[in-house]
Design goal:
By secondary structure, the chain is of the alpha+beta class. It contains 28 helices and 34 strands. Strands 10, 11, 12, 13, 14, 15 and 18 form a 7-stranded mixed beta sheet that branches. Strands 2-1-26-27 form a 4-stranded parallel beta sheet, covered by helices on one side. The chain has a 4-stranded antiparallel beta sheet with strand order 6-5-9-19. α19 (635-644) crosses α20. The structure holds zinc ion (ZN) (2 copies). One zinc ion (ZN) is lined by residues 474, 476-477, 480, 516, 518-519, 521, 523.
């Protein structure tokens, strides 16, 4: 009785025991130096924000990465598997407001709590390389990089319209505005404000960021597509329309002023279809366009109308979809001259033209653009067709022009020829684009132009808990960078945090008032802090050399580890973090610090963890706490369930029954191994050189029938799991495969107990089960490894190798069709040839019934796969 009670799988005993042992062995998860002779493998999961507690999404993310890291260790790689904390950010300030706890204290307490959770979960991180981004030893390098970028003209300050979240009380980058709302406050509409801000010139790398996406074939296609769209390259032409003195004779021409000297005389438009320029019947300006102010200066009525357009834009932005704005425009009464034909076109101001796209002005060609057509129809503007579709079978350009067909307008295809376009008539659209471009540049009124949707990265934040921007404002010298030797600019500890009246740092006199490094006079520090996405743009370069006090990292060490072999995280970072860190890598390369062009070779984006059909969240009350799961079922069960319940790239619907099921399975493994561990230990001495070594060509005749069957299953399981780690990562089916193997061994329990399976085979089976389990349930695997009498860390044991000979089935099940219809399945020897397969099929009773009285006109045999008897 007493013995039976003892014999129980108890993760509450096993797991803390191993947690302690692992903690006492800091070398266990440490990476080795570059000269260790092993191939390197850098596996990384995105670092968490220290909110105070891990959630199930974290458990899943880190279970995937940890399984991979452990398997690579067992395969003999030098593995780097670090962890850190993305520790700056607004929640710390909000918590400070709410609980009156300083942000630093709150953050560090959260980190300690989450680290305890990580350790309890048994994650194999090298804590010696831990980084915390809110510590001066880390953020001083943010400042150092900022100074380097400033030197290179990649960091600059300008006044511009910026996104402002009233909830965050700070500016947001374009990437942080999601459907018109704040990325942190999904319900809060982002406002536009005019502010002087620091920007990083990410657009200088737009072309390369786009082109290099082609190299990233280890990235999910959806992420590459999202980045491609975000960068938004379009090729076209910029053309100057000349502002005419002439007054438009169209509607709405009253009340015009005359032009002063020194004002704008040209309107530069950007178009991707310069071939349609003879069809331009108006020029449209964004309400914020510089010329609009000039045109409305003496025209209060027009100014009022323009203000209304601005208001409409603001409302549409607030509604979340500027693209769907109801189009309104007002005529200015002025005209511009089309430089190609000298024809005047009216100038309008329209609410759907964006100041920050292209030049903030377009030519409107209603006959060949959907949007322009809609606008022209609404306001009765001229619609002039200048492109005609080409009739089928036209052989030459001349012929094409002759055979141009009537088109339904708007005709937007580029598959056509020019008409009503003077000397350019008859040209194909694509040819005309090239020719018209060269005309513009030779005559000096335009040029070929590539534009990008990507804008420079606004990094100023009017908040406290971030990296101080290392700049000084001197009345005499203007902007003066903090000298490198004065870094870090420390974030002061004592700050009164409120969300009003600009950056909290502005109220700390001892921080703000400094001596100008240039003239020695009194000056003021910059009080904006950096966007926290700066911290995560390069953190993974710091891990391999985390303690470096004289540089962000040693280039030699980084050269060995980069690029990251496998990066794992949520797809929500596809635009934000993953584009910023690619930019940062290219900047560091151009600073001569690194040689790689891209930070990450392979990227994996895991699905979300949901419950009751929704993402887990406090407001929905469907949060499952990892601590609770660990307390109830153990860390191994929680981790293994998060891998077992669905393929890692899909969403996982959390079911507690499932965790309980995994826990019961682990208990069965524990019972199986402990029951036969004594036999297996005997098998150790029994033979070192027989089947147990599972080398190809091991003597099959030295073991019993059941042994062979179990070994076959074992080698098949090894092959399947190994392949999955290398390829599709369907860890859910890996776990099922281990379950099947265990079931099959248990199915032979009576024979095992009766000694029908050789001790060395039992040893081999149990050893393999434990090795295969190691990446998924590391605690139990370590315990059972010891139970089997194995010495040394399981993490350093060799990953098992499948023997294809032993994995091969003796018999195969072959589907038999009669005239293409499945009739039955027959068993044949695995190496049966076509004739033997056909004979087996014909010998089958069901098949005989189907072919009786008919003639088999043809037998199609696919060896090892299928027999199809075609009858008449
Ligand atoms: Zn916000
Ligand atoms: Zn000065």
């Amino acid at each position: 009785m007493a013995e039976e009670i003892e014999q129980r799988y108890d993760p509450a005993v096993i797991e803390p025991k191993w947690q302690q042992r692992w903690a006492a062995d800091p070398g266990l998860y440490a990476a080795e130096p570059a000269d260790c002779g092993k191939p390197k493998y850098y596996v990384l999961e995105m670092l968490p924000y220290p909110s105070g507690a891990l959630h199930m999404g974290h458990v899943r993310n880190y279970s995937i990465g940890d399984a991979l890291a452990r398997q690579m260790w067992m395969r003999g790689y030098n593995v780097l598997h670090p962890m850190g904390w993305d520790a700056f950010g607004l929640p710390a300030e909000n918590a400070a407001l709410k609980n009156n706890t300083p942000p630093r204290e709150w953050t560090l307490a959260n980190i300690a709590a989450m680290k305890r959770q990580f350790l309890r979960l048994g994650m194999g991180f090298d804590w010696a390389t831990e980084i915390t981004t809110c510590m001066p030893e880390y953020y001083r390098w943010n400042q150092w990089f900022f100074l380097k970028m400033y030197e290179k003209g990649l960091a600059y300050r300008k006044k511009s319209k910026v996104n402002w979240c009233p909830e965050c009380a700070t500016v947001l980058a374009n990437e942080q505005v999601v459907d018109g709302c704040c990325w942190r406050h999904e319900e809060t509409i982002v406002e536009q404000r005019d502010l002087v801000q620091w920007f990083l010139r990410i657009t200088a790398y737009a072309e390369e960021l786009l082109d290099d996406l082609e190299k990233l074939d280890g990235w999910p296609e959806k992420v590459r597509t999202m980045q491609r769209n975000w960068i938004g390259r379009s090729e076209g032409t910029e053309v100057d329309f000349f502002l005419s003195e002439t007054v438009d004779q169209g509607p709405g021409t009253e009340g015009l002023g005359t032009r002063d000297e020194g004002t704008e005389t040209r309107i530069r438009v950007f178009t991707t279809r310069v071939d349609t320029i003879f069809g331009a019947t108006s020029v449209q300006l964004a309400p914020q366009h510089a010329l609009v102010a000039q045109l409305t200066a003496d025209n209060p009525a027009l100014k009022a109308q323009v203000d209304e357009l601005i208001e409409q834009q603001k409302k549409a932005r607030e509604a979340g979809d500027l693209g769907a704005i109801e189009k309104h425009g007002v005529p200015t009464g002025r005209v511009a001259i089309n430089p190609y034909n000298g024809q005047p076109v009216p100038i309008w101001v329209a609410n759907y033209i964006l100041a920050d796209y292209g030049t903030g002005a377009i030519m409107s060609v209603p006959a060949h653009d959907e949007r322009d057509f809609e606008f022209a129809t609404k306001y009765g503007l001229e619609i002039r067709q200048v492109i005609a579709p080409v009739a089928e079978g036209a052989a030459s350009e001349g012929q094409a022009a002759d055979r141009a067909e009537e088109a339904v307008l708007p005709f937007v295809s580029e598959d056509g020829v020019l008409i009503n376009s003077g000397e350019f008539d008859g040209l194909k659209c694509t040819d005309a684009q090239i020719l018209l471009q060269s005309v513009a540049s030779s005559k000096g009124f335009g040029e070929a132009k590539v534009t990008f949707r990507l804008k420079d990265w606004g990094v100023s934040r009017q908040r406290y808990w971030g990296t101080p921007i290392p700049m000084i404002h001197c009345e005499k010298d203007g902007i003066v960078p903090v000298p490198e030797e004065q870094l870090p600019v420390l974030l002061p500890d004592v700050v009164e945090i409120t969300q009003q009246g600009g950056s909290p740092l502005g109220r700390v006199a001892e921080f703000v008032n400094v001596t100008c490094p240039k003239c020695g006079g009194p000056a003021k520090r910059e009080t904006d802090t950096m966007d926290t996405f700066v911290d995560s743009s390069w953190y993974f370069y710091r891990y391999p050399d985390a303690k470096n006090a004289t540089a962000p990292f040693d280039s030699k060490i980084v050269k060995y580890w980069f690029p990251i072999d496998q990066y794992i995280g949520g797809v929500e970072h596809a635009i934000l973090h993953l584009i910023y860190s690619r930019f940062w890598t290219k900047v560091m390369r151009d600073l001569g610090l690194i040689t790689n062009d891209e930070p990450v070779a392979r990227l994996f984006t895991q699905g979300m963890v949901i419950k009751d059909g929704a993402k887990m969240s406090k407001s929905k009350g469907n949060v499952v706490s990892p601590d609770e799961m660990v307390a109830r079922y153990g860390a191994d069960s929680a981790r293994m369930y998060s891998l077992f319940a669905s393929p890692p790239d899909r969403d996982l619907d959390w079911q507690e029954d499932g965790v309980a099921g995994v826990s019961r399975f682990l208990a069965r493994v524990w019972r199986l191994v402990t029951r036969y561990s004594a036999v297996a230990r005997a098998g150790r001495e029994d033979s070192q050189s027989q089947v147990s070594e599972s080398r190809p060509g091991a003597p099959r005749d030295q073991v019993s029938g059941l042994s062979l069957k179990l070994l076959r299953k074992m080698h098949q399981t090894i092959a399947k799991i190994t392949q999955d780690f290398e390829g599709r990562w369907h860890f859910n089916t890996c776990v099922s495969a281990i379950m099947e193997l265990v079931n099959e061994i248990q199915g032979g329990d009576a024979q095992l107990a009766a000694g029908a399976v050789e001790a060395h085979v039992i040893k081999e089976l149990l050893r393999t089960v434990v090795l295969l389990l190691a990446p998924f349930a590391p605690y139990l695997a370590a315990e059972l490894w010891e139970e089997l009498g194995e010495e040394g860390a399981l993490l350093r044991a060799d990953w098992p190798v499948s023997d294809p000979e032993l994995a091969k089935e003796d018999e195969l099940e072959i589907p038999v069709q009669v005239s293409g219809k499945l009739v039955t399945v027959v068993k044949v020897a695995a190496d049966a040839d076509g004739a033997a397969m056909e004979a087996a099929a014909r010998a089958n009773e069901k098949v005989q019934g189907r072919i009786a009285g008919k003639t088999v006109v043809k037998a199609i045999v696919v060896p090892g796969k299928l027999v199809n008897l075609v009858v008449k």
